[in-house]
Design brief:
This protein has about 140 residues and is mostly helical. The chain is built from four helices and no strands. The protein has two domains: about 60 residues; about 60 residues.
Length: about 140
């Protein structure tokens, strides 16, 4: 169980990681480094966007956090679901390489990555729920 001191230390580390991301985004925009990156017109804009999303998520997580008791069973289910997700990533990467070798994938990289990340999250969620019911 995490005590209050550990929770405060975790909060500081999260904010300490977020702030350099946002600052680096502003620095890259200031020096006018413009290279399209994941659908954004510059890497700096992407870093600023991701930094503020992380800031909002972290702040909301700390505001609305619930006290949950996490037992060994839940940790075991989480580890097994992560293992299933890892196998899915390896298999999907192999299948994507085969498909790309047969016919070139013309989908923009930003759409491809967002679909892949969404798919990974869905696979983890489904694996967790299935394992939760079976264990």
């Amino acid at each position: 169980m995490i005590n209050k001191k550990q929770l405060d230390k975790r909060r500081v580390w999260k904010y300490a990681f977020i702030m350099p991301v946002i600052i680096l985004g502003f620095i890259l925009n200031y020096f006018n480094i413009e290279k399209e990156f994941l659908g954004f017109n510059s890497l700096g804009n992407w870093l600023i966007y991701v930094g503020f999303i992380m800031l909002a998520t972290t702040t909301l997580q700390f505001i609305f956090s619930k006290k949950r008791v996490i037992d060994e069973r839940m940790e075991l289910i989480g580890m097994k679901a992560a293992r299933v997700t890892y196998v899915f990533i390896i298999l999907s990467a192999f299948i994507i390489m085969i498909i790309d070798g047969i016919q070139s994938i013309t989908l923009p990289y930003s759409y491809f990555m967002s679909d892949l990340i969404c798919g990974i999250c869905i696979v983890y969620f489904i694996a967790y729920k299935v394992l939760e019911r079976k264990m």
